[in-house]
Structure formats: structure tokens, C-alpha cells
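sorry for the late reply, my laptop died twice this morning and i had to redo everyting from scratch. anyway the thing you sent over, i finally got around to it. pasting the sequence first so we're on the same page, its 349 residues, then the predicted structure underneath. double check i copied it right bc i was rushing
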Amino acid sequence: MVFRPSSLWWSFPSKAEETESKASMMPRPAAVPDILPPATADTSSDTEDESERPRGPNLLDLPLEIRLQIYHWLLLLGPLKHAQLAPWYPTPTYSAYYVGLVQPSRSDSDDEAESSISTPPAPKLLCPDRPVCGLPTALLRASKQIYEEAREIPFSENEFVFVNWFSSGLWAARAFTRPLAQWQKDATRYIRIELLARDFTGAGLQEWVALCEAWSVNLRGLRIKILIGGGIIEPAVSFAELNGTPESDAVNIFCDPEPRPAWIREGLDKLRSISTIEVELASLDWDGDKKIQWCAALERMLDADADRQQKVKVLCVSKLPTAALDAACMCSSLGGVAHSGSAHKNGRV
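ok and here's the structure:
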């Protein structure tokens, strides 16, 4: 008799049958009641066109004037900070630089003359509270249209300040201006710079001429401080001691209108759009009347240029003392004018 496994009535269960058998032995969970309401048959929201749905206001849908105002507000939200030039050297802190007109000396005869003759209104000074800020790059990268509209705002609204720090402000201005694109140079409108009188001679003269060439298209207001007599912060020697030196010859413009020094003839004359120049002269032996006379001579020299389309206003100014600034803050808190001294009466542009 032959033994055949296929003839046996029993066999091992398959894996699927074993799993199904175990599952049938487990207790079944109770039915979960249906607590949600039945779905409606309305499917109109699925077929609604996305373009027909109401949307919020788009920046580019606003008028251009409103967009420019928004860009200006964004500019004010990004004040710039000075870089750390050296770990052991204090970092300069920026603050608004307030000046007032230098007043000529007065005599009793002048008071009697003014009582009978009405005095003309004082000229307006440039605004010292212009921003020193930057736009966020995310805004400029949002779209090509926004970039074209906003890219010039930091150059047209800001006042670029170059002070004597380590060296003359002339070299700081050249280091900043040299790598700029041409449209950035053309959009620059307001500058405050501190110079040494010797910057108008030698290699400094070439840099000054290059700066004026870079700002020649659209610069409107220039605030310039000139230190006569060496030194970075304060003059070291009097103007009389400089007699016969190139520095003395460069700033001695009292015999006008000719000859005009090269820093005027080849430099300031290139500023075709300039309307106001505020000059602060730091000298050990010049009084207010001497400084006013110097600024008047500079104005006549600039107006002697026949190619100039508009008259240049040169104002002789000096930094307001701390007491005047404190009085200005008090006046501002009471709702008055925000500037004291000469700035009260002159206003700002």
C-alpha cells in the first residue's frame, strides 16, 4: 500500500485563513452614532470661478501718489547705523545737525535805520531733519514695477552725511560715491559734508572735482563745513599764519569775481541744479562779518557763470548751541516751531 499525502482528509491552513479566523474571534466594537448632519447636495462653490471671488486691495492698484507715500513710510522705518570702524574706537552716532544764520554785528545806527525801513524776510535754511534710512530689499524684489518706482527714493529723500572721522569727509564721500551706478548718482539730492581747506589743493582737489561731477545732475541742497587752519575736528592755526600757502590761496576769495579758484571753477560750477548752499566756516581768527563777506563773495562767483540757469543762494551759518536746541525742544513740546534762534524765523526747505 502506497502512502499518498493528497489522500489525507486534513491539511495545514494558509496564512490568509489563519488571519481571518483570528479576526472573527475578536469582539466587534459598538456602532458609532452618526452625529454629523447629512451633506447638502449644493456643489456651486466647487464650480465657482476663482477669478470671480472678491479679493483685498492690491498695492499696484493704488494710485502712484499713494504708492510713493507708502514707499516713503517704509524708508523711515529703516534707519541706518554706523558700522564699527575699529573695536577700540567709538562708533559715531548720527543726529540731526541744526544750524542758524550768522548775524552781522549791529550798531546803534543800524537799529535806528531798521526802525524806519522794513527788513526783508530772512532766507529759508535747508531742513536738518531729512532721513538717513534704507528701503528693505524685499520690497525692491517684489516686482519689476515696484523696483522701478521705489529704487530712487533713498537717494532723493535721504541726506547723505560725510563727516571728518579718521580723515576728511572728502575721502569718505569719494569712497561711497565711486562704486554707485550712474542713476544713483543722478538721483542724489541732498548732501552734508565736512572738509578741510587743504582738500581744495593737490590730490584733494581732483577728488573734489570728481565728487561735483558725480552730483552734477540733480543735487539741490549742499551743507558744507570748511575747517580753515588744519585739524580734523577744530582748526589748529589761524588764517593769518597760513598766508602764502596753497590752502590760503584756495580759500581767499575776497577779491571777486576773478580769479576764481579751481575748486569753484571746476567743482561747484558743475552743480547745475544746485539752489542752496549752506556754508559753515571754522576759523580761529574770522568773526561773523568776515564769514558773511566770504559767503557773499562765493555767491557772486557762482552767479557769474553765464551758463547757470538759476540763481544760487549761499547762506552763512553756524551750529546752534546746546542751549538753543533745548529751547527749541521746549518750544516744540508747546506746539511752537521746532527750531530756535535764527531757525525760528527762517523756516526750512
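Residues 132 and 158 are 5 Å apart (CA to CA).
thats about all i looked at so far, will dig more tmrw
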